Amino acid sequence: MASAIKFDLPATLSVHPKRKCIHQYVPQDTMVLVLVKVSDGYNQRVGLEIFDNSLSANSYDKKRDLNGEVRLAFNTHADADISVCFTNTLHDGIQPDPKYSRVIDLEFEIGAEADDYQSLAKAEKLAPLEVELRKLEKVVQEIVDEMEYLKTREAKMRDTNESTNERVQWFSLLTLFTLIGLGTWQIFYLRRFFKRKRLID
């Protein structure tokens, strides 16, 4: 899967930099290719940080003073949202102004789209049709992996539902027996009480 986005990144003071983040969910052990194009801009420094929101909070890359085109490739370590965050800070002594901004062109390619098939075609001397078949093979493999992941998740959810259902059943039985026991005790207690007060025989 590939996605592209283009936006203006206003410059802020380096004391309080503002981040602009793009988020994308990516499964574990998936190749990700991030292509960034930064427009020219004076008195500004663009920074980039790539990380995920998993429990281990994996950091994939961190760059400062980005200019021109940058390609970053990595494999994910967990099923999580990948965040690509940008900052644009002004050089010291420069005051914020609407004219200070940089245009960011971001492409996010995941899985089969992230592989460099041109290099592969040159290395293995593949025909264009063979390259397309390799792409399709990778896409099909990703679909199979996704189906396996969904199947595993469905099994876990089913186990959780069955476990919850069993607990609710036991809790219902416990509540029922408790109510029956309290009702029986109440009847005997009231009978004894009324007999003691000689209200009934």
From TrEMBL:
Topology in the membrane? Single-pass type I membrane protein
The principal location of this protein is membrane
- One Pfam match, given by its short name, reads EMP24_GP25L
List the transmembrane segments.
170-190
A single Gene Ontology biological process assigned to it is: endoplasmic reticulum to Golgi vesicle-mediated transport
* Keywords associated with the record: Coiled coil, Membrane, Signal, Transmembrane, Transmembrane helix
Q: Which residues form a coiled coil?
A: 126-153
Designated name of the protein: GOLD domain-containing protein
Q: Which family does it belong to?
A: Belongs to the EMP24/GP25L family.
InterPro entries from the xrefs?
A: Emp24-like, GOLD_dom
Where it sits in the cell: the answer is: Membrane
